[in-house]
Amino acid sequence: MRNILMLLVVLFLFSCANKDRNKKDLALNIQGTWQLLSATTIENGNSQTTAYSGKVKMIKLFNNTHFAFLKHSLDQKDSAGFDAGGGTFVLNGDDYTEHLEYYKDKNWEDKHFNFKLTIHNDTLIQKGVEKVEKAGVDRVIIEKYIKIKQ
């Protein structure tokens, strides 16, 4: 009887360990630097896709708790084509929520944005709604990033 109880305890401990390992396997690893390849905006039924392979470059950086994005023109004569922002985020499975703390347009600051993330090999896809009433923005965005190798 004692051996059976010990066996049950051991099996229980292994099953708990496997559940924790499975949760870790399901967690998306977004840490690092990602370069934007394309961005699609869907607003009022109209879709527009911008490829980021020519005159503009954007990267997004993630650590354990914060994100930041930097976008600039590759044209040496364009010093005004710069954009940046950042804040904190929470990632729960594929549910990703940004809290934008820093941005040049104050209407966007202190807002939360909910997205779904997927990762395929070295490609990250972020899809969700950007809604900022004061800025007149209510749209779906789909951004496609590639991981920058370190």
Structure description:
With 150 residues, the chain is an alpha+beta fold. The chain is built from 1 helix and 9 strands, in the order αβββββββββ. The chain has one helix at residues 2-26, and strands at 32-43, 46-51, 56-62, 66-73, 82-92, 95-103, 111-120, 123-132, 137-147. The protein is globular, with a radius of gyration of 21 Å.
Key terms:
150 residues; alpha+beta; eight-stranded antiparallel β-barrel; 1 helix
Distance between the amino and carboxyl termini: 56 Å
Global geometry: globular
**Could you give a short account of the major beta sheet?**
8 strands, antiparallel, barrel
Order of helices and strands: HEEEEEEEEE
Q: Pairing-aware structural class of the strands and helices?
A: alpha+beta
Which runs of at least 5 residues are low in confidence (pLDDT < 50)? 7-11, 17-25
| Quaternary structure of the protein | single chain
Beta strands, count: 9
Give the strand line-up of the largest sheet: 1-3-4-5-6-7-8-9
Present the secondary structure layout.
Blueprint: H1 2-26, E1 32-43, E2 46-51, E3 56-62, E4 66-73, E5 82-92, E6 95-103, E7 111-120, E8 123-132, E9 137-147
Antiparallel strand pairs: 1-2, 1-3, 1-9, 3-4, 4-5, 5-6, 6-7, 7-8, 8-9
Quick structural summary:
The protein has 150 residues and is α+β, with helices and mostly antiparallel strands. The chain has one helix and nine strands, in the order αβββββββββ.
